[in-house]
From TrEMBL, chains A, B:
Pfam families: GSH_synth_ATP, GSH_synthase
Location of the Glutathione synthase substrate-binding domain: 300-399
Quaternary structure annotation from Swiss-Prot or TrEMBL: Homodimer.
UniProt-listed Enzyme Commission number(s): 6.3.2.3
Name of the protein in its database record: Glutathione synthetase
Catalysed transformations (reactions): gamma-L-glutamyl-L-cysteine + glycine + ATP = glutathione + ADP + phosphate + H(+)
Binding site for ATP: 237, 402, 456-465, 467, 492-495, 518, 545, 551
MF (Gene Ontology): ATP binding; glutathione binding; glutathione synthase activity; magnesium ion binding
Superkingdom of the organism of origin: Eukaryota
Location(s) in or outside the cell: Plastid, Chloroplast
Origin species: Eucalyptus globulus (Tasmanian blue gum)
Organism ancestry: Eukaryota, Viridiplantae, Streptophyta, Embryophyta, Tracheophyta
Gene Ontology terms: cellular component: chloroplast
NCBIfam families, sorted: glut_syn_euk
Keyword vocabulary terms for this entry: ATP-binding, Chloroplast, Glutathione biosynthesis, Ligase, Magnesium, Metal-binding, Nucleotide-binding, Plastid, Transit peptide
Length: 567, 567
């Protein structure tokens, strides 16, 4: 979603910290799957680890890279071992996939091979140091940041996450049909969040004219973290708009398989334990099937893009597969261009530059930044009014908001949308603690122990979540002011994933550090008036982030693309 | 060879001009395939055309790009039409593949698609504006410069060129075995060219110790131009060392096929008329077969590289296919590194960093610049002394020099090396006029009409050829000085290829101009003591260069990778 879309360098996996699980302090939840309190021994074990990780501060670690626009050549391909990592060598866990036990020469060789592989196989992004790299394809390319090896992940939880995808797909569809539920749930948010308010206005207009989309396409990605202590798979968020990295994510799985096919024997790793990842093929197929449903041979797929996009190759991979394998063309337009070039025909057909549009695929429009003027909102309304298949429709978009995520976590709400009790139980099991700020009990808890919560604003775009002492201060301010601004946030339990020694490569430079990972599972859903045509899990995305914490306890550092190794 | 190796931006196709064919002025040659004098009418037609092309000077045309290190964004993806091109619209020929008759919107769309395709499929080089791009893979990437569409080329001449490959392969092998011929032919060159002299020294040493390479591997590329008037295929040079672009060249053929599969119908072009180009596969297979001949499972392929190489991805493609398809590993070392890390075992096995070397594949070592100190010459000698299969051996390297090319063009010399009369006739047919400066008659002609000749120094590296008035001045100086320096050059007939309106893309910017092309045909040859194991034509490389001429009449501008469309 927003956070991970605008730049491959903002791969947020921010919903984590390195302190004991919140569950011990939390009120009973509707589900029986609440994380269990940790024993003192494991607790103290964790705390000791955190102390180590907290020093030196992250700024020291990132400075040689972050402060130099052209990175020092001497660092290239020489793995930079942070002081922190060196300190932790003795105490760190030693998983098979970490760097601790791998010979440095072998790592250098693998890094070199991986960088070559990335260049030859299109695992690339626009280089932020090159001006035109977000506008013109083919120039200012650099490899996408990636982890050298896949992260180990328990097979059962991976399967569990995959099984959830079709249920979430259906849930989104059902919720999207309940316009009143969306409007009611978001009514307080509407008052304090201008962006959500504009989306709701469009949604209201569609309700007023009783516009129904009979063909509905969803390309979602549900993001999870694995709680280290309980091994529970907990959902971070559900992206219903602009789910990114289906293209590059597949490539990283391939890269890792290629590396293990050459080095696996030496490392004692089996490339077949990296699950097949065909996210981009499935996404392309779903788009193609939607195009077929639209039933106009002259029509195109309209990809709504930002004016600058350094992650364009991820998008181009999808368009390329769509064209090469399904012979469906796509055009790329910004919201402003759609406002300028778009028109509705009397039958509702959207023409852009005279070309009819079958499917509108949004890779922009999820953040207020994408709507700098009324022009962009006119474009969004125009598209919503059209007969084109929106991916997502305004209803799907709203169904993926954090407030709706929190509403769905309330007792007995899932039951309004799903019948199958097993499905409901499966979904509920993956919900972390989610609360509205209207709950004085939980607000009190959060002021008391802010480190156990994340405050999430409705607003998208990444980097907006509130952590640590800022949670307390913000909550106290909101209480003092007694304003309705509290409706702009939800509170979420912070999740405690395991951290492992990891080798991360960015800008041709290799870093060894402790990192945590977030698993995304892609889902595709397509239906027409009569039938569900597609409802499937499509592949996965692993993102790994350096787990260095600054003094506020907030996870920071950069994130990279990764894949997983089933254990 | 040297000229095209060091940077993808130096794709020399310099042996051409835009004035009448030299053949009318030349003495009778041994072959009956000399270009016929042109009729007056065609001559005047050509001259008129040249006048048009000569203005405005090329500096005006290239200035907006060449003088700005970060190219103006407004130029990106907007085809820059030179004044010259605009002027020529009415008079220019209108071949199917030119830009004249193609709608600008369609060209823009194709350029965009082509740039995306290049990024996703590894048609990339290091960006000269990024410091680390020649050292670290994965950073500072940009698309390789390419022509938007293939160049039309007559099928019969293409087949002819393909048929020549195995004959040239065999010729090189035979010549390489005649040490005395090499030494004698190059004896005068040796006195005035230090580089050739050092190569000959190594060659002499090998003769002294009677070292014979029983397994011999050649990966050659013979470069041709098609004389416009006579439609004769004339050889420019035969590369026996470091024949580049087998990797990227194949990709350009694929790029063009992909474009024609989408736009061919609109353009009236059939993608099947682009010949299959499997150069990189054949090269990899030949290297793998050589590796098998060496018969040491622990041995590697040693790729000798320059310290900086922006064309590294072309090389990586070859290594990658070698590894993925044949499971043969390669290591990359500079000559200095080989000097430092290399050692010979008593049985002649070359170890580099302790790893035995089966095949030495040179992508460096063809230019004096690659030997800045004695260290590099020690490495070259060490490799030559080893039992590793050299690609090329010092003999193969010498057999590809310009002086040997000129010697082979003398009457009755080919007959010393080849028996088959048909083969001899085929080879002779492709020889342009080639002369030693010892011939006073031809020197007189060249002083009289310098525009009809190219003076080629033995020295490699590109940009060293002498054209136009400089030919006259250099020849007069050599006459005055009466020195032996004339042995450092050969004289070659200048060739007059056809020029066509072409769309060229470099740095994400599209240029429309008139351009001429050079066809390279790859050949692979492998034999052991008993048998020829491989002797084949492997694929092709088309390079297209803006044909703008400066006041000296020298072809200049930049060259791009291209493919061909059989007519």
């Amino acid at each position: 979603m927003g956070a991970v879309q605008s730049s491959p360098l903002v791969l947020t996996t921010a919903d984590a910290c390195f302190i004991p699980a919140a569950s011990a302090l939390l009120p009973p939840r509707a589900s029986s799957h609440v994380a269990k309190p940790r024993s003192n021994s494991s607790l103290s074990g964790r705390i000791r680890r955190v102390d180590e990780i907290l020093e030196p501060p992250v700024s020291k670690f990132t400075s040689p890279v972050a402060q130099n626009p052209i990175f020092p050549r001497c660092l290239a391909l020489k793995c930079v071992r942070s002081e922190m990592e060196a300190k932790n060598d003795e105490t760190a866990e030693k998983p098979t996939l970490g760097f601790v036990e791998i010979d440095q020469g072998l790592i250098d060789q693998m890094v070199y091979d991986a960088l070559v592989w990335s260049s030859l196989h299109g695992l690339v992004v626009g280089d932020r140091n090159v001006n035109r790299s977000g506008k013109v394809p083919g120039v200012g390319l650099t490899h996408a940041p990636f982890a050298l090896l896949p992260i180990s992940f328990p097979e059962s939880q991976f399967r569990e996450a995959c099984e959830l995808a079709p249920i979430f797909n259906e849930l989104v569809d059902r919720v999207s049909l309940d316009g009143k539920f969306l409007q009611d749930s978001l009514s307080r948010t509407k008052k304090v969040d201008a962006f959500t308010s504009r989306l709701l206005d469009i949604h209201s207009k569609m309700m007023e004219i009783n516009k129904k989309d009979e063909i509905r396409l969803g390309l979602h990605r549900s993001d999870y973290m694995l709680d280290e202590q309980t091994k529970l798979l907990l959902q971070i968020e559900l992206n219903t708009i602009s789910s990114s990295f289906s293209g590059l994510g597949c490539l990283v799985s391939e890269l890792h398989r290629s590396l293990l096919s050459h080095y696996g024997e030496t490392l004692g790793l089996d490339p077949r334990r990296i699950p097949t990842n065909a996210a981009v093929s499935h996404y392309a197929e779903a788009l193609a099937k939607a195009w077929i449903e639209f039933n106009n041979l002259k029509a195109t797929v309209l990809v709504v893009v930002q004016t600058e996009e350094r992650n364009m190759y991820d998008q181009h991979w999808l368009s390329s597969v769509l064209r090469e394998r399904h012979n469906v063309r796509s055009i790329r337009k910004t919201l402003a261009e759609i406002d300028a070039e778009g028109e509705l025909q009397p039958d509702g057909t959207l023409l852009v530059g005279g070309v009819p549009v079958a499917v509108i695929y949004f890779r922009a429009g999820y953040t207020p930044n994408d709507y700098p003027s009324e022009s962009e909102w006119r474009a969004r309304l125009l598209m919503e009014e059209s007969s084109a298949i929106k991916c997502p429709s305004i209803s799907y978009h709203l169904a993926g908001t954090k407030k709706i995520q929190q509403e769905l976590a309330k007792p007995n709400v899932l039951e309004r949308f799903l019948e199958n009790k097993e499905d409901i139980a499966k979904i509920r099991k993956c919900f972390a603690g989610l609360w509205s700020l209207e709950d004085p009990h939980i607000v009190g808890k959060a002021i008391e122990s802010p480190e156990l919560f994340v405050m999430k604003p409705q607003r998208e775009g990444g980097g907006n979540n509130i952590y640590g002492d800022d949670v307390r201060e913000t909550l106290l301010r909101l209480q003092r002011e007694g304003s309705e601004e509290n409706a702009a946030y939800i509170l979420m339990q912070r999740i405690f994933p395991s951290i492992s020694p990891t080798t991360l490569i960015r800008d041709g430079i290799c870093y060894k550090d402790h990192a945590m990972s977030e698993l995304g599972i892609y889902g595709a859903y397509l239906r027409n008036k009569e039938n569900v045509i597609v409802n499937e899990q499509c592949g996965y995305l692993m993102r790994t982030k350096i787990s260095s914490s600054n003094e506020g306890g907030v996870a920071s550092g950069f994130a990279v693309l990764d894949s997983l190794y089933l254990t």
